[in-house]
Amino acid sequence: MRTSRVEAFSDGVFGIAGTLLVLELRVPEDGTDLGRALIALWPAYAAYLVSFLTIGIIWVNHHALLEHCRHADRPFLYLNVLLLMSVAIVPFPTALVGHYILSEHGATAALLVYGLGALLIAIAFSGVFFYATGNARVIGDAAEARRLRQDGRLFPIGLVSYSLGIALAFFEPKASLAVYALTAAFYALPILPLPRR
Amino acid sequence: MRTSRVEAFSDGVFGIAGTLLVLELRVPEDGTDLGRALIALWPAYAAYLVSFLTIGIIWVNHHALLEHCRHADRPFLYLNVLLLMSVAIVPFPTALVGHYILSEHGATAALLVYGLGALLIAIAFSGVFFYATGNARVIGDAAEARRLRQDGRLFPIGLVSYSLGIALAFFEPKASLAVYALTAAFYALPILPLPRR
Amino acid sequence: MRTSRVEAFSDGVFGIAGTLLVLELRVPEDGTDLGRALIALWPAYAAYLVSFLTIGIIWVNHHALLEHCRHADRPFLYLNVLLLMSVAIVPFPTALVGHYILSEHGATAALLVYGLGALLIAIAFSGVFFYATGNARVIGDAAEARRLRQDGRLFPIGLVSYSLGIALAFFEPKASLAVYALTAAFYALPILPLPRR
Amino acid sequence: MRTSRVEAFSDGVFGIAGTLLVLELRVPEDGTDLGRALIALWPAYAAYLVSFLTIGIIWVNHHALLEHCRHADRPFLYLNVLLLMSVAIVPFPTALVGHYILSEHGATAALLVYGLGALLIAIAFSGVFFYATGNARVIGDAAEARRLRQDGRLFPIGLVSYSLGIALAFFEPKASLAVYALTAAFYALPILPLPRR
Asked: B185, C38, C70, C176: which could form a disulfide with C168 (CB 3.0–4.6 Å)?
């Protein structure tokens, strides 16, 4: 099966998950000093920033991977649905972090859930990646599949760094968010080559 | 008419319906023990999981069916609109189930509505399927249409199992959700062949 | 300019506007009799039905029109943006109608706003239609443009029937919703031919 | 890499950001005079209008630019993600303006945030534009890249006029919204040529 419709559906979910993040930026109540209230929302802006960039960067890598794929079979489609399901959750932990990162007893739980969500995405992406590159039929060329898998050998690093962020949530929740942001930045590096078309 | 734009519109609705589910995962109120409050949300996570996978699996089957279709005529388009209308409702029964499955007097009504929504999808998908495969022009090849209809003879099984789930909602609402999840799992089987392109 | 990206953007807005309608189906509060509360929501279901089908039918007609278009110029793009802006409003009047159709003093205002929204869509669609068919360059074939305009001579009937529905809103709000539903049903007729591809 | 998937993802975000604006049009509470309450919502309608048209016009210009692009590389993709992130924020300042433009102490802050959001979009779009036209590989033809950059020399005017609007927010918030609307109208002019395909 062609991969073009996989891309359309995926682009839809990535785009919507990113755009729904804005719904967590809530207009402050009347009667307050609006300027001050808007400044106090900064954790929500920070969470928006980290999550939107994370989704954008995953999209770029998904894009890079699918440009190498020729045929989608059922396991590939289901692994991709699992990836999309994890990405679609992102607005929930983002709202949690925006709301609770400054709270004394809520910050750990919020950052823990954020990390679990990110870990889920990393696992699902690894699933899609290893299935595609371990399967000559999906890529359509065994040599290219091997090369891609070799190129992407650093891909599973998110599994480690998100776990680290989760552990940090118990001690320093804000440092935990920094680890999540840095992990996204790592994935922004050109790990997978873009086809030269 | 080409089917590519039918696919784009459908992918949009499938993707959005799936992603809107996350809006029903609500950030718990301040002042509570956040960790405990998040654990208490487990029925909402379960409902998210069942509904997202259901939508993802319907998308895969829709995809498989439309890959065999060459021409879309007006009845086909309207049947597809009815299918999308049913899929777009999913966030509502999902929220009901997430909210009421543990409630003593609400669980039956919630699972009943969930089952009715699922039944509506099964009826609409059957409509699209039988129209497409009963109509040489849509598939563009009478032999392939017959083969597809033969392959999809188990498709209407959802009509039976969703009805069963609805009946169960009156006695064991949680078992009812399990029946809905199992029905989705059944449809994940390779019933319709994917084209070998 | 090719029309394919016009279609992608339009499909996105149509799909999202349709799917956002579900957010107006709100989970009833705890502590009520859920079954009864869900039945009392019937005006919201009716409004969902009329609005989703209206959007679906507009999408089919938009689709039919754009299949005949070869080139999009700037005025065409802006007229299309105005159409999408009107379609994207639909969830608001739908929520109004679902909430107020049974209310004694709110029903007229709600149905009036619904009719104004529908009228706006009819005006914008007429704008796109007359611009495209009055302009040999958009269709790319003067004879086909003339034929299409001739085929679509009943298109502006919505301007009349939505105005009628608005007038009715002052006397019989429920009859007004019926007029809006019938207008959608009228547009489901095969007014514009689908290309025989 | 081909630019078609960049377009699909971008169209998704543009379409969703535009359509989410409607969620800020809130159904007035029961028990009020609905007609009067709906008229009192006019600032929200004005904000919807300005924001939807702004997004629609950015989409047309994005469309015009990408029609000239042949190859997307990683910096191009990330600049585009930054642009989409800015566009996806629009519903938040729109809601602020709709809610606070008539308020005595909130109007300045609301219009200031709206202007900052618009400025962010203008900066990000300039980034995409200058990267694409300064890079023979993205456009795929050095002469065409030079010509485009020459055509788009008025593009950064938004940086100036949005800054002006921000300054005005401190004295005349309503005039500030007018400046934002006029800036969008300026970008509706045919600055970038559409390819004659």
From this structure: C176
Which residue among B74, B91, B103 sits closest to C22, beta carbon to beta carbon? B91
- Min mean pLDDT across B74-78, C40-44, C152-156 is at C152-156
Q: Is the pLDDT of residue D175 over 70?
A: yes
What global pTM score does this model have?
Answer: 0.93
In chain A, the residue whose alpha carbon lies closest to the alpha carbon of B36 is A109
ipTM over 0.95: no
CA distances from B147 to B106, B134, B188, C114 (A): 45, 11, 20, 47
On whether any CB of chain D is under 8 Å from the CB of A27, the answer is yes
Q: Measured in Å, how far apart are chain D's first and last C-alpha atoms?
A: 21
Write the CA distances from A22 to B43, D27, D88, D121, integer angstroms.
Answer: 25, 20, 7, 15
The verdict on a CB contact (< 8 Å) between D100 and A34 is yes
Residue type, A166: I
In whole angstroms, give the CA distance from residue A166 to residue A160.
Answer: 10
Of B16, B53, B197, the CB nearest to A12: B16
Burial of A149 (0-12, 13-18, 19+ CB in 10 A): middle
Calculate mean pLDDT across residues B69-90. Answer: 93
- Number of A to D CB contacts under 8 A, please give it: 100
Closest-CA residue in chain D for C73?
D194
Report, as an integer, the average pLDDT of A173-184. Answer: 94
- Interface residue of B20, B26, B77 to substitute, partner C, most C CBs within 10 Å: B77
pLDDT at A196 > cutoff 70:
no
For the record, the structure tokens of A160 come out as 């480690």
* Max Cα-Cα span within chain D: 65
Going by C-alpha positions, the residue among B85, B161, B82, B164 that lies closest to residue B126 is B82
